[in-house]
Design a protein that fits this description.
The chain is low in regular secondary structure. 12% of the residues lie in helices and 8% in strands. Strand 3 and strand 4 form a beta hairpin.
């Protein structure tokens, strides 16, 4: 049974609007991230400590989270025993502002991978922005039925 049709495949290449991170790049968070990835490059230290005041390239991907004071979708569904973890703002279809594909509503989707493009290192004090795109939409048949990546 094919899940994808021309209308669904027309979403390939569609992009979200730019989203601005809720927090600026901060020295303490960069230090913890650099320690976690075991990369003590001096460029990641603050300028007052002789460093470059830069964040590791992948660090900005961790800046896109729920801002303080905004509703927590997990807590909003805490008393619902049927809640499966997918709600507005979280889950497989809520991907950085990308539109849901109507033909796939109600199905569980799998992110087949991510690719990032960086133009330069983020610097301490900056707020970064992101825009997501559907690079491809692929259907595969499995022993359990079709799956969409």
């Amino acid at each position: 049974m094919a899940l994808l049709n021309a209308e669904a495949l027309a979403y390939i290449g569609r992009s979200s609007e730019f989203e601005l991170a809720c927090d600026a790049v901060e020295a303490g968070a960069v230090r913890r991230y650099a320690q976690a990835i075991m990369d003590d490059d001096p460029a990641y230290a603050p300028p007052e400590a002789g460093g470059g005041g830069l964040a590791p390239l992948l660090y900005p991907t961790h800046l896109f989270r729920r801002a303080w004071g905004t509703p927590d979708p997990i807590q909003d569904h805490a008393s619902d025993p049927d809640f499966d973890g997918v709600a507005d703002g979280i889950g497989a279809t809520a991907s950085q502002g990308l539109p849901d594909i109507p033909q796939l509503q109600g199905l569980r989707l799998m992110n087949g991978g991510s690719e990032f493009e960086f133009f330069r290192h983020a610097r301490f004090g900056e707020r970064v922005k992101v825009r997501s795109s559907y690079a491809d939409i692929v259907e595969r048949e499995t022993s359990q039925g079709p799956i969409v990546f």
